[in-house]
Design a protein that fits this description.
By secondary structure, this protein is α+β, with helices and mostly antiparallel strands. The chain has helices at 14-21, 51-61, 97-100, 106-109, 117-124, and strands at 2-6, 26-33, 40-48, 65-66, 69-70, 72-75. Strands 2-3-1-6 form a four-stranded antiparallel beta sheet, with helices on one face.
């Protein structure tokens, strides 16, 4: 079972998070970090094999003060499928007319361009 741990202090490392959950036997601990800076985003995931242990962890750690911040621990939800869902402005995130269900413009936007390697070499030559 996967737990979502949020509102983690930014100075906490993945090692600190792993040590906090180590007595309960996590199989995997991931602290989510910024792509370019490597700094913590303030949340992470802990994978625990036993469901009963997960429930105890949620009761024990949810709402606890850890490095000056009140942590939130809950069962992680699966990621949402972004294929054909509109964003906050109502626009679809996928620009493919087939994925959007836009059959009206499907013929106009479904052109396939092919590159003829042999023709390209003849032109150079």
């Amino acid at each position: 079972m996967n737990l979502y741990v949020s509102n983690i202090a930014y100075e906490i490392t993945e090692y600190d998070l792993r040590e906090m959950f180590a007595p309960y036997g996590p199989t995997k601990v991931v602290l989510v970090k910024e792509r370019f800076t490597g700094k913590s985003k303030g949340y992470g995931f802990v994978d625990i094999a036993n469901e009963e242990t997960c429930k105890k962890l949620i009761k024990h750690f949810n709402g606890k003060d850890f490095y000056g911040k009140i942590m939130s621990v809950s069962v992680a939800r699966p990621r949402a499928d972004k294929d054909n869902k509109p964003n906050k402005k109502g626009k679809h995130t996928v620009q493919d007319p087939v994925a959007r269900g836009d059959k009206k413009n499907m013929k106009n936007n479904s052109k396939v361009f092919q590159f003829d390697r042999h023709q390209h070499n003849k032109d150079k030559g």
